[in-house]
Design goal:
Elements lengths: L1 E4 L12 E3 L2 H8 L5 E3 L2 H32 L3 E5 L7 E6 L1 H10 L9 E2 L4 E3 L1 E10 L2 E10 L2 H8 L4 H14 L16 H12 L1
Parallel strand pairs: 4-9
Antiparallel strand pairs: 1-2, 1-3, 5-7, 6-8, 8-9
């Protein structure tokens, strides 16, 4: 289907562009969301008559979004979640969690503005894109940790999972006694023999 874009659409075009898209995409998303018009003669005339107003409104919305972007850009939300020993979450962090986390910080973001690609399924710091306007995107950090202490470590750049694996490997190594290379296998070191003799004399 040929359509006239009423706003910039990523990977499609900008205001006024006539583009061809799949019928379903036009009917189910672009047309009902008023992001585009069917490209027929009547709509072309309507668009041209309103082009100036549409472009001005878009510029105003973009300016507003840029202002908001300055307050949202780089925001960090901490999400405490249970995970396995390998750092995989029991469940996942989705768009709704991001929106709620931002709302707790005083940022009013619509779930349609959160661009995640896929839910977050592991501990760590994750970049999440927020589209405040078709031409204004900012990035926030989702700090997914098992506790506030872990979140603070991750904020400081510590790889919590790596640290945990290193601690575990040190624990499993356990205590090993130093070996005297001059002794025959099974021979008792002289200082231990002296100690035993002193103990029996006492």
């Amino acid at each position: 289907m040929d359509i006239i874009l009423l706003e910039r659409i990523e990977k499609l075009g900008t205001i006024g562009d006539v583009v061809t898209v799949k019928d379903g995409y036009a009917r189910n998303f672009l047309l009902p969301q008023k992001k585009a018009l069917r490209a027929n003669d009547a709509n072309r005339r309507v668009f041209e008559a309103n082009r100036e107003r549409l472009e001005q409104e878009n510029a105003e919305r973009r300016t507003e979004a840029e202002k908001r972007g300055k307050t949202v850009e780089g925001a960090e939300i901490v999400l405490i979640r249970a995970s396995s020993n390998t750092g995989q979450l029991y469940g996942s962090v989705n768009v709704r969690d991001i929106v709620q986390g931002l709302a707790d910080k005083g940022h009013d973001i619509d779930k349609r503005q959160v661009i995640m690609g896929a839910p977050i399924k592991a501990l760590g710091l994750h970049d999440v894109r927020i589209d405040l306007h078709p031409e204004v995107s900012v990035t926030i950090k989702a700090n997914v940790a098992r506790s506030d202490d872990e979140a603070e470590l991750q904020r400081q750049g510590v790889d919590v999972m790596k640290q945990m694996f290193e601690e575990e490997s040190q624990q499993t190594t356990g205590f090993t006694e130093a070996v005297d290379p001059t002794l025959e296998p099974g021979e008792i070191p002289a200082e231990l023999l002296d100690r035993d003799a002193d103990a029996t004399a006492a």
